[in-house]
Automatic annotation (TrEMBL):
InterPro entries for the chain: AP_complex_ssu, AP_mu_sigma_su, Longin-like_dom_sf
Protein name from the UniProt record: AP complex subunit sigma
Source lineage: Eukaryota, Viridiplantae, Streptophyta, Embryophyta, Tracheophyta
GO cellular component: endomembrane system
Keywords attached to this entry: Membrane, Protein transport, Transport
Protein's UniProt keywords contain Membrane: yes
The organism of origin for this protein: Fagus sylvatica (Beechnut)
């Protein structure tokens, strides 16, 4: 992370620690492979935590709830896409 000279380094370290704790809670014991194969999810979590480099949400429960809601929306979109593809195939085979 890049910080200005007048920024508090301990605060930045605390934000990094907070981010890692949330990642650990989401992925279970988080490791590099989780971040490599799910980088989009890690960025989404980071976006929920920070805005313009400042801490937006300090509650781990709130972030976990927002991530869970996002996961539910993604699953619903996948299901709708599957059903629409099935409908297209069914109409094409008539």
């Amino acid at each position: 992370m890049c910080i200005d000279e007048e920024d508090n380094e301990l605060e930045v370290l605390e934000i990094i620690h907070h981010f890692v704790e949330i990642l650990d809670r989401y992925f279970g014991s988080v490791c590099e492979l989780d971040l490599i194969f799910n980088f989009h999810k890690a960025y989404y979590i980071l976006d929920e935590l920070l805005i313009a480099g400042e801490l937006q949400e300090s509650s781990k429960k709130t972030v976990a709830r927002l991530i869970s809601a996002q996961d539910s929306l993604v699953e619903m979109a996948k299901e709708q896409r599957k059903s629409s593809i099935s409908n297209i195939i069914a109409q094409a085979t008539k």
